[in-house]
Amino acid sequence: MITMRRFQPTDAAQVAQLVATTLRQSNRQDYSATYLQTEIERMSPAFFIEKAQQTHFYVACDQTKLVGTGAIGSYWGSTTEYSLFTIFVLPTYQGRGIGRQIIETLEQDAYFKKAQRVEIPASITAVNFYQHLGYHFKDQNQQVDDEQLYRLEKFPQN
């Protein structure tokens, strides 16, 4: 059984490894090795400790093993708009509903519940997954941005 809990600083190294593994395996068909390596280096354990101080950061656990992550935080300091971040599921656990469980957890978070709009920077690899969960292209823009990500959004209070 997969359980969700808030990130703890002691999770940082395991989260960094989970993200690196997922990027290398799941995203390699959509991104260059150079792009992926740059992202892996940027998302160090210290990066996740800092991210957790700025967001409500969750981890999905299979007993003591971390198998997924997701966070929600303010959209550029807004108190009415929020963003989803760092949503990853280990490749060996994908297809089991864990990604959906992470999104459902984030959508039950206090930030989501008070949001007028929630944005997610979606990878090429995951854009269809988020669309399936009700997220739509921001401003109908179906092109990746300078970060090679799609911008999707949902309006929870509508």
Q: Concise description?
A:
The protein is an alpha+beta fold. The protein has helices spanning about 10-25, 35-40, 45-55, 100-105, 110-115, 125-130; strands at about 1-5, 55-60, 65-75, 80-90, 115-120, 135, 150-155. Helix 1 (about 10-25) runs antiparallel to helix 2 and helix 1 (about 10-25) crosses helix 3.
Task: List key phrases describing it.
single chain, 158 residues, alpha+beta, seven-stranded mixed sheet, 35% helix
Q: What would you note in describing this structure?
A:
About 35% of the residues lie in helices and about 30% in strands. It contains 6 helices and 7 strands, in the order βαααβββααβαββ. A 7-stranded mixed beta sheet has the order 1-2-3-4-5-7-6, with helices on both faces. Helix 1 runs antiparallel to helix 2 and helix 1 (about 10-25) crosses helix 3 (about 45-55). Strand 2 (about 55-60) and strand 3 form a beta hairpin. With about 160 residues, the chain is an alpha+beta fold.
